[in-house]
Structures are given as structure tokens and as C-alpha cells.
Amino acid sequence: MDFQEASEHRDLRDTVRAIAAKFGPEYYVPRAEAGEPTAELWAELGRNGFLGINLPEEYGGGGAGLAELAMVCEETAAAGCPLLLLMVSAAISGEMISDYGTAEQKEHWLPRMASGETKIVFGITEPDAGSNTHRLSTVAVRDGDDFVLNGTKHYISGVDEAEAVLLVTRTGRDETTGRARLSLFLVPTDTPGFVATRLPVSAKLPEKQFVLHFDDLRLPASALVGEEGNGFHQVFHGLNPERITGAAVCVGIARHVLAQAADYASTRAVWDAPIGQHQGIAHPLAKAKIETDLAALMTAKAAWQHDHGEPAGEAANMAKYAAAEAAAAAVDAAIQTHGGNGFATEYGLLPYWGIARLLQVAPVSREMVLNYVSQHSLGLPRSY
Questions:
Q1: What is the Rg, in whole angstroms, of the alpha carbon atoms belonging to the chain?
Q2: Phi, psi at residue 322, to the nearest 5°?
Q3: Taking the CB of residue 88, how many other CB atoms lie within 10 A of it?
Q4: What counts of helices (H) and strands (E) characterise the chain?
Q5: What are phi and psi of 336, to 5 degrees?
Q6: Rounded to a whole number, what is the distance in angstroms from the first to the last CA of the chain?
Q7: Strand partners, 164
């Protein structure tokens, strides 16, 4: 890897940061507190071509890669506007439709995703399956030329903002291993039998969470994305982009709160000197800065490997782990630096704590990352 960032990447970062800075925490925090979508920022990013920067040019995208999308995710977050749906709609759904969708699916969905006109969220999590995709209970059964879906999904983000859900279902069992055969479907949210129920969460986020129920939901075969029964491979190819962009969001969050905390520590004087002069304040912020920059390097490596067709699972998992830990530590240090003001709505730090803490759990928990590294990187016996 060349550690000198290309001029076009610097320009990309500068442009995205300038757009997001016009909104900033003054825009994001009230919407996070109220649970209101960041529709205006999303539309602005779409008009300027950044939502589809990783999508094929023939479908209205920028023709770039995941590295560039990760930069968009990082810079919006660094400007105080972390967007979870960039991870979901642009990274997972956009990449999967680009890689596995039919020509008709690409033509119908990708141009409008790139422009910001529509979003497609991702539905895999279930209440009783957790991280074990082989235990998925949402089933799609062939019925003539159609598929009939029944089941439940849990903690699905942004359904109220989406036109469709890219849904992971079980369509059979492997005769040899007994493991589930998975398939992906594009399910419009207005399909009869699709019921979305708001799932209340205490974290302050613009994106709402939902429980989805499917009751004899009927889909045409044209809703199938990729090959029937090959969804396991497709899903795990799509999860690396989610982890990489999630890491980028975390790096951006850390950059934002550290900049705010450093400014506060430089100007806040309780006795005769700014509080940032004291090592008890300065060292936690410095430690968080180091951890953030290290996470950024791993995120860039993972994105580069993905874009160059190299195995990116290890780096993507490591980036997600490192960046989520760095973001949580950075927000904690920023709150501690502000003292009681760290909890004041005026300073707007708690919403960033909520999303940073969430990203230690999702889209993959730190424990499952450690399981992955133990088994695949160190060769230790599988523990789960």
C-alpha cells in the first residue's frame, strides 16, 4: 500500500466534509435526539454523487470502490453527521445488487439509490438466531412461479425510510451437512404480508429500528437476488463492506468528538491554566487519537483488499473491532473532558456515545470478531 493519499482522495474528502459541515452537529444532534431522519443531508450527498460513488457508472454510480465509500462515511461522521444507512443501503445492498442482481434489478434500483431517491435496507438478524445464520427461521418456499415468505426479522434499521428490504431467507437444507441454504430477495416494503413494527431503543439515533413480520408474503421469482440457495456466500461477501464502512463511521465519530474535546480542553480554565494542560485530561485524548489513527489504517487496508479482489475478511473484522473500540474510548474521553457539560444537551455528546456503543455490538459484536481472529488468524479451536 502507498500511505501517501492520492490527490483525488484528498479532494473527495474535502468535498464531502464541506457538504456535511454545512449541516454539522447543529443539524445532526437534534434529529438524533428526536429520532428524525437526516433526509436533507442524504439528498445533498445524492445530488453530488456520493451515495452511489461505489456503484457502476452505467447505473448512475461513480464507478469507484469501497475505499471511496468508506471515505464518504468517515468524513460525514467527522463533520458530526454519522449515517448508519450509508453502511446499509450504499455498502451492503448496493454492493450485493451490483454483484449479484439481474440486469432488470440493477436498472430498476441502482440509479435511484445512487441519486438518493430511494434506499434499500438489509434484513438478516432474527430474535432467536443472533449471529448464527444457519438458524434463520424466515423461510421462502416455492409456490409455482412465486415464493411465499413467512418469518420474523429483528433490529432492522431504517425501514421507514426504505422502499425495499434486501432479505436473507432460508430456502432449504444442505443434504450432507444439514445446514441452511440461504437465498436473498428484494422485498418492497408495501408488499401485502409485510408488517413493520417500531422497536423502541434508548440510544439517540436518527435511524429507527424495526421488527418485521412476514405472513404468507408472496414474491415473484424476479425478486430473487443471485442464485437460489447460494445466499450464504453472497451474504458473507456483502458483510465485509458493512464492517469496513462501519469502521469508517467509527473513525469519523472519534475524529469529531476528539476535535470538540481538544477545543474545549484548550479554552476551559478552572484554575489558572486550560484544563488540557493537565496530563489527566491530555493523556486520555492522546491515547484515543492514537487508537483512532491506527484503526483508520486498518480500515484503509481492508477497503483496499476488498477493492482489489483479495480476501478481506480478517482485515475487515479487525478494522471494525479497532474502530468501534477507538470511537467508544474517544467519546468517553470527550465526555470526561467536558465534566458535567458532557451530559448537557448543549454540547451534544451523548448521541455520539450511543452510536459508538451500538457499533461495538453491530453489525458484528466484538466477541464474534475475537472468535473469528482466534480461529482464522491464530488457528485456535473453534469456540462456538
A1: 21
A2: -65, -40
A3: 27
A4: 12, 8
A5: -65, -35
A6: 34
A7: 120, 188
Taking alpha carbons only, the member of 35, 86, 69 closest to residue 303 is 69
Those residues whose C-beta lies under 8 Å from the C-beta of residue 202, and which sit 6 or more positions away, are 354
Question: Of 348, 283, 296, 351, whose CA–CA distance to 325 is shortest?
Answer: 296
Ranges assigned E (strand) in 189-289 = 194-198, 209-220, 224-225
Residues 78, 17: contact at Cβ < 8 Å?
A: yes
For residue range 187-204, what is the model confidence (pLDDT) as tens digits? Answer: 999 999 999 999 999 999
Pairing assessment for the beta strands 146-157 and 180-188 based on DSSP bridges? unpaired
Beta bridge partners of 380: none
Mean pLDDT of 317-322: 98
Pairing of strands 146-157, 164-173: unpaired
Take residue 60 and report the three cell numbers written for it.
448512475
Which three cell numbers, joined as nine digits, stand for 244? 469496513
C-alpha cell at 37: 431522519
Q: What is the pTM of this model?
A: 0.96
Which grid coordinates are listed for 335?
465526555
